TrEMBL record:
<protein>
    <submittedName>
        <fullName>ABC transporter permease</fullName>
    </submittedName>
</protein>
<feature type="transmembrane region" description="Helical">
    <location>
        <begin position="202"/>
        <end position="219"/>
    </location>
</feature>
<keyword id="KW-0813">Transport</keyword>
<dbReference type="GO" id="GO:0005886">
    <property type="term" value="C:plasma membrane"/>
</dbReference>
<keyword id="KW-1003">Cell membrane</keyword>
<dbReference type="InterPro" id="IPR035906">
    <property type="entry name" value="MetI-like_sf"/>
</dbReference>
<feature type="transmembrane region" description="Helical">
    <location>
        <begin position="12"/>
        <end position="34"/>
    </location>
</feature>
<feature type="transmembrane region" description="Helical">
    <location>
        <begin position="140"/>
        <end position="159"/>
    </location>
</feature>
<keyword id="KW-0472">Membrane</keyword>
<feature type="domain" description="ABC transmembrane type-1">
    <location>
        <begin position="58"/>
        <end position="260"/>
    </location>
</feature>
<feature type="transmembrane region" description="Helical">
    <location>
        <begin position="91"/>
        <end position="120"/>
    </location>
</feature>
<dbReference type="Pfam" id="PF00528">
    <property type="entry name" value="BPD_transp_1"/>
</dbReference>
<feature type="transmembrane region" description="Helical">
    <location>
        <begin position="239"/>
        <end position="259"/>
    </location>
</feature>
<feature type="transmembrane region" description="Helical">
    <location>
        <begin position="54"/>
        <end position="79"/>
    </location>
</feature>
<keyword id="KW-1133">Transmembrane helix</keyword>
<dbReference type="GO" id="GO:0055085">
    <property type="term" value="P:transmembrane transport"/>
</dbReference>
<keyword id="KW-0812">Transmembrane</keyword>
Length: 272
């Protein structure tokens, strides 16, 4: 009885946090989504969201989020695999994660200097004889900077999965005559798929709602759901439409979390 009472007491701060910072904001967003720009109760915002303009913007957001996630995964998996086989793997992991501690705005402005007309990237292109190129305010610069920012969050869960992998399984695959590629494809990757799914989740969801990089790095040439929400709240002052876009963004995020969630417990329950 005492232990149950103690658990209930410890649960109170958690419940208050969820209520104030999760449930209440979502409820407010849902509430405002039913009001038009003049403050009248209406479903016009939901009707507007399903127009071609907003549907194309949603598809564009998913495309860029998918692209950022796919590139991050292609770079992160071999990087994490290499780190787990080094002597000082935790030191290397720390060096990769350390840049994520720097303020996002500072990193964005740093890349503005690197990709600018007189920046480091164009200076290298001049030395190589390629010539100066317009790198800033392009899809390439937006995806590149986004991948740079999100890649530590992709590497970390994959590294943890690879680090927990039983070495005897790799020895068994080698003894059975499996090549390195076969071992990676048939043993290592399937056993670390949960780390991959976790990495994709923590990259895809925030990439879907990017808005600051679209302004600073892409020059507003890339429009995402996050950019649309910012414009509706700060530019057009249409809180209802901004809230409606946010509602659909929350729904998309929940669906992604469900799709990439851990089904291990469900499988274990079925086996019983």
């Amino acid at each position: 009885m005492e232990n149950k009472l103690t658990r209930n007491i410890y649960f109170i701060p958690y419940a208050l946090w969820i209520l104030v910072f999760v449930i209440a904001p979502i409820t407010l967003v849902l509430y405002y989504s039913f009001f038009d720009i003049e403050g009248n109760l209406s479903f016009i915002n939901y009707k507007t969201f399903f127009t071609p303009t907003y549907l194309m913007m949603t598809l564009s957001s998913f495309w860029y989020a998918f692209l950022i996630t796919a590139v991050s995964l292609l770079v992160a998996y071999p990087t994490a695999y290499f780190i787990t086989r080094t002597k000082h793997k935790h030191l290397w992991l720390l060096l990769i994660i350390a840049p994520s501690w720097i303020n996002l705005l500072l990193k964005a402005y740093a890349f503005i200097g690197i990709f600018g007309a007189y920046g480091t990237a164009n200076a290298i292109l001049e030395v190589l004889g390629i010539g100066s190129r317009q790198l800033l305010f392009t899809d390439f610069s937006f995806v590149f900077v986004s991948v740079y920012i999100f890649i530590p969050f992709m590497i970390l869960p994959i590294f943890n999965s690879l680090n927990e992998l039983n070495p005897s399984l790799l020895d068994a695959a080698r003894d059975l005559g499996a090549s390195k590629w076969t071992t990676l494809r048939r043993v290592i990757f399937p056993l670390t798929i949960q780390g991959v799914k976790s990495g994709c989740q923590v990259v895809f969801i925030p990439a879907l709602s990017l808005f600051m990089l679209t302004r600073l790095i892409a020059g507003n040439k890339v429009i995402t759901l996050g950019t649309a929400i910012e414009q509706q709240f700060l530019v057009t002052q249409d809180w209802g439409m901004g809230s409606t876009i946010a509602v659909f963004l929350i729904i998309f995020m929940v669906l992604i979390m469900v799709a990439t969630g851990n089904r291990k417990k469900r499988g274990a329950k079925n086996e019983r």
